[in-house]
């Protein structure tokens, strides 16, 4: 999903954040990505800008602290941020990191649903960050 600058500004205002140019740009990048993004990945997607990496990082932290883009993955100790537009979009599904190409993928929520929704732990679990690793289907050599 992509959002335009006006939508990004409105989203920021709703969260009581000032709509600075880098913040709007970061928000648009996060909105256009299906998977959570790290600081480095946001920089790559931004391309050439006048903003230095530290500025972008500070804006990610601002968005995180405001609850707009929480860290939903910590694969390899790298924080990845995802835009949360409603309560149901918190990436409570497992994430898969490919050790070959470094791609991160969102896996079906069913893999953890039985643990999150049923049984004695259902009320105890408030957030989930399940990380799986291996080789993604694109990198896996087809069997001979
Ligand atoms: Zn891969
Ligand atoms: Zn996800």
From TrEMBL:
Family: Belongs to the Fur family.
One example GO MF annotation: transcription cis-regulatory region binding
Record keywords, A-Z: DNA-binding, Metal-binding, Repressor, Transcription, Transcription regulation, Zinc
Pfam families in the record: FUR
Source organism superkingdom: Bacteria
Cofactor note: Binds 1 zinc ion per subunit.
Organism phylogeny: Bacteria, Deltaproteobacteria, Bradymonadales, Bradymonadaceae, Bradymonas
PANTHER family recorded: FERRIC UPTAKE REGULATION PROTEIN (PTHR33202:SF7), ZINC UPTAKE REGULATION PROTEIN (PTHR33202)
Protein name: Transcriptional repressor
Requisite cofactors: Zn(2+)
Binding site for Zn(2+): 98, 101, 136, 139
Biological process, per Gene Ontology: negative regulation of DNA-templated transcription; regulation of secondary metabolite biosynthetic process
Keyword Zinc: yes
Keyword flag Transcription: yes
């Amino acid at each position: 999903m992509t959002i335009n600058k006006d939508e990004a500004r409105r989203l920021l205002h709703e969260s009581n954040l000032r709509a600075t140019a880098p913040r709007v740009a970061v928000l648009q990048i996060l909105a256009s990505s299906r998977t959570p993004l790290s600081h480095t990945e946001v920089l790559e997607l931004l391309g050439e800008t006048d903003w230095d990496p530290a500025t972008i990082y500070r804006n990610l932290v601002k968005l995180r602290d405001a609850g707009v883009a929480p860290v939903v993955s910590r694969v390899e100790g790298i924080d990845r941020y995802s835009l949360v537009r409603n309560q149901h979009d918190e990436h409570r599904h497992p994430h898969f990191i490919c050790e070959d190409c470094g791609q991160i993928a969102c896996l079906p929520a069913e893999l953890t649903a039985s643990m999150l929704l049923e049984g004695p732990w259902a009320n105890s679990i408030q957030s989930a960050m399940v990380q799986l690793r291996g080789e993604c289907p694109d990198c896996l050599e087809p069997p001979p």
